[in-house]
C-alpha cells in the first residue's frame, strides 16, 4: 500500500538472500551489494505489479536473477574471488594448509566451470547447490517447467564434473 516501513521490513527480511544469490554469480562483494540495491529499487517500483502467482521470495529471486544476467552482460565479467575469508575459516576450524589449498583449488575449478557455462545452466546449479532451493522454486524463478530445470541442472553438473576431471580431480 506504499508504506515505507513495510518495504523496509521486506528489505530486512530478504537482503541476505538477495546478496547471497548475487554473490554466487559475480563473486565480488561490492558488485553483489550494487546488484542487491538495484534489485530492491526495481522491486519497489514493481510492487504494484506483483500478482502473487508465486511467493514474494520467488518473485524477488527472479528479479535478482535477471539483474545478475544484465550485470554480467553489460560488464562482461566472468570473475571469481580468491577471498581469504575461506582460508581463515579453515585455519580456525583446524584444517591443515594442504587441505585448505586443495579445497581452494577445487572451489576455483568449480567457479571456472560455472563461468564458462551458459547462464541458464549456471542459474540452475547456483539455485540448487548453493541456494538449496526445491525444483518447484527453481522452476518458478527460471520460468520453466521442472523437467527443464532438471535437464539444465544435469548439464551443469556434467560440465563441472568434466572440468574437474580435466583439472586432475578424481571423480567420486
Descriptive overview:
By secondary structure, the chain is mostly helical. Helix content is 76%, strand content 0%. The longest helix is centred in the N-terminal third of the chain and has 23 residues, at 4-26.
Summarize the structure.
This protein has 172 residues and is mainly α.
Task: Give the integer mean of the pLDDT values.
Answer: 82
* Number of β-strand runs: 0
Main structural class = mainly alpha
Number of helices: 8
Morphology call: globular
Low-confidence stretches: 77-89
Query: Kindly, what is the distance between the CA atoms of the first and last residues, rounded to a whole number of angstroms?
Result: 53 Å
Order of helices and strands: HHHHHHHH
Q: What is the C-alpha radius of gyration, as a whole number of Å?
A: 18 Å
What is the topological layout?
Elements (H helix, E strand, L loop, with lengths): L3 H23 L2 H18 L9 H20 L9 H8 L4 H20 L2 H12 L4 H8 L3 H21 L6
Helix pairs in contact: 1-2, 1-3, 2-3, 3-7, 4-5, 5-8, 6-8, 7-8
Q: What descriptors fit this protein?
A:
mainly alpha
Amino acid at each position: 500500500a506504499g508504506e515505507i516501513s513495510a518495504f523496509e521490513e521486506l528489505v530486512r527480511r530478504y537482503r541476505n538472500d538477495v546478496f547471497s544469490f548475487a554473490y554466487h554469480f559475480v563473486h565480488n562483494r561490492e558488485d553483489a551489494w550494487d546488484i542487491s540495491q538495484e534489485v530492491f529499487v526495481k522491486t519497489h517500483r514493481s510492487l504494484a505489479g506483483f500478482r502473487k502467482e508465486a511467493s514474494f521470495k520467488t518473485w524477488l529471486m527472479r528479479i535478482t536473477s535477471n539483474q545478475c544476467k544484465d550485470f554480467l552482460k553489460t560488464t562482461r565479467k566472468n570473475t571469481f574471488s580468491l577471498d581469504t575469508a575461506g582460508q581463515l575459516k579453515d585455519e580456525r576450524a583446524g584444517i591443515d594448509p594442504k587441505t585448505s589449498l586443495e579445497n581452494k583449488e577445487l572451489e576455483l575449478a568449480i567457479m571456472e566451470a560455472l563461468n564458462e557455462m551458459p547462464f541458464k545452466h549456471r542459474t540452475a546449479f547456483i539455485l540448487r547447490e548453493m541456494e538449496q532451493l526445491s525444483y518447484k522454486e527453481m522452476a518458478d524463478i527460471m520460468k520453466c517447467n521442472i523437467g527443464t530445470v532438471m535437464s539444465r541442472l544435469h548439464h551443469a553438473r556434467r560440465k563441472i564434473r568434466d572440468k574437474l576431471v580435466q583439472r586432475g580431480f578424481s571423480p567420486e
